[in-house]
């Protein structure tokens, strides 16, 4: 019995490595808060109303991904992983959002200040119950 345990561990390790290599999950893990209108002006594109995608799926970059403004216009895939209330996430939903603002200076303040990404109300409510103000997310740049 104990003779077989090391190879069992190795099998799990190889499976884990293969899954990481072949993209079962490619994203980074972070957190998301939400913010509400008014969304203008933004740190990225000022008062230009054309900066918002027609889907209304957009967000403000936390300091970790703000990248000194280089994140403006970047697109991210985001999905909800977990939250304090376990029914908060809509696990089957993934959204693609566009960064239009900097969370640290957004006109309308985020529901939490330390989030990786702050999502528009539409974006947040697409992947989670909007009565939550903070969720754990997986995200990857498109
Ligand atoms: C969203 O969360 C609130 C508070 O936990 C709950 O009362 C409500 O039923 C939830 N809505 C949905 C659609 O799950």
TrEMBL record:
Signal found in the keyword field: yes
Residue span(s) of domain Expansin-like EG45: 41-142
Any matching Pfam family: DPBB_1
Keywords, sorted A to Z: Signal
Signal peptide: 1-27
Superkingdom of the source species: Eukaryota
PANTHER family: EG45-LIKE DOMAIN CONTAINING PROTEIN (PTHR47480), EG45-LIKE DOMAIN CONTAINING PROTEIN 1 (PTHR47480:SF1)
Protein name per UniProt: Expansin-like EG45 domain-containing protein
Species whose genome carries this gene: Dipteronia sinensis
